[in-house]
Amino acid sequence: MKRDGNTMQANSVTAGSGISAIPLQPSQQPAPSFDAKAASQELLKLAQVDRIVSVDDWYAERDDDGDDVVSAVAGELLEAADLQSIAEIAPSLETLRDPSTPAELAADEVRNAWGELSEPQRTAVRAVVDGRLGPSSLGEPREEDEPAASSLRDLLADSREFITLSLSKWRERRRELLGDGKSTLILFDRDFSREGASEDAGEREIALLMREAPENWRIGLLTHTVADSDAEIEVWKTLARKFEADSSRFLVIAKGHLSVSQAGFPRMLKLTLLAPALEHLQQRLAAAVSGTWSDAISRVADIDPYTLEAALNGDRLTDGTWGPETLLRIATAFTQDSVRAKLRADRGVHDSSHLVTNLSRVKLPNVSDPDRVRKELAEIERLEYFETAEHLTDLHFPLEVGDVFAFQKFAEKPHSFESAGQGKSEAKDVESGTADPRRQGSEQYMILLAQPCDLAVRNNGKRANGLEFVRVAPLKPPGNGRVISQPGGGVATSFDLPFFFASSGGGVEVKLSQQQYVPLTALDMCVLSNQGTASLSVDQEMPDNLLPNWQQRFRIVRTWVENSIKAYRAMEPHRIPGKGADQVTAALTRTVASSNLESLISLRASAVFYGVKRIGRLREPYRSALISRMSQRDSRDAFDPSLIDKGNA
Length: 649
Known about the structure:
elongated; ten-stranded antiparallel sheet
């Protein structure tokens, strides 16, 4: 495990690491009974699409003289069985049945008869040649577009108008189709080089269309140049930037969804139909929030000084609430109901939400590779669960239940740290963090468990209960391959926290049955430090942004550090044999019973160091739920009082 800055994350996730990845969706394989056609038709019906237009150079008129087949016959590239098959498809090519027919004569017969063959006969003949020489033998990439075009018609053509156009025909009918008011799904090929246009002509047509198409048009780009969902997304992003286009008006769809397997096409169809509605919801929310926040800030500004002083005064300010947080709380209260009211009054929001709800009822297979989507959603969910350390550290927020700490061993033991020549310039560097002793080994994550009132520092810099030690519980990845997807869990001795690790998205268990006690002074130092690490020197200046009660706390802790160093120096630890220096350090810093917390006392730096750093905080309501679980465990029965064995019940 490693920590990147103030972000909790895992280096990597391997099969044997025991670290759970982001919670998976149900089986990623499409159900055997999935009907792609029925799903596609239902999506079109719910989205009220009247017409589908497919624009592809496959539909362009082509001069077909059969030269490709003639060349294969003249070059004696086909077997006798192939010629026999061609003769069965086209009975007029009777001479092909005779193996003794010279190749030149057979080729002339194919050339002369080709114009009389029907399109299905020509297609079948070419299939025979492809079967012998490979799908690229005839020079024209029909094998790419023909299956996709056929599949597209099969999936979408029933019960509604289905128009197929070449690029030139689309340009002829463009104004007519745009002006008739019909709700339309239009799908463009990307490459129109077979019509003499460019390989990105489809992109350019879409860029033009998005400026003129009515709101009830949905646009898709069908292409062979992308193979999977991630590539579709990247091409979509690139095109949106390239043409400065409204990215909600079109989506990129891999033709493999049609020519290889139909199972993935309905999902892309759904996204294409939904994209404008989703964009509308985002825009209306942004507009509502933006306008309402301005109103809320104005309302905050209108609060008279008497009322505002009362809101910011008292225990909220001195015990731990940063003043601007209270202002944010007031502004949020003004904002929330107002935003909801604006959204409820917006007819377009209701229509978009209705479409999203309706299309979501169509059961579709899960995406083949959900990792990217799950990772992005996990990052959002993680923000709901955890506060990162930046604002906790910069503003020196007081300790709170749910604070997360990283414990790590020091590279040197107490007196060997001094003997190794370190600490020569620590006195001036402790505050900046550059003198923090070297760490080694993996970090052990712990979470603070305590009643909030017990942690509160009073105006004299002390806690009312005289608390010196506090409970922490380890955070560990679940075993046996279990994936944590919800907070809490049903086991009384633990508490599940999803999305703990930033890179893998994996969750952890709070092991309530493995609680430990650590000196509260060590955790207080994390609050008092500018880096969130537990270190303090006798020469350290009081940090900025400390709340009034914690300013008093700083003075008390700094005095404690000074007294501890004096006692340590008086014992002359360098003269104590064996592990005497370690034991003296543990006694003075109160870490004797804290197996995961190490400490150092530096005489040169006149500082005390603990091997712990605050790296985050569990948000509400999860930290309250954690405290409730802890209380339930503490008050549980020592044994089952029932006379009836549950195994025999």
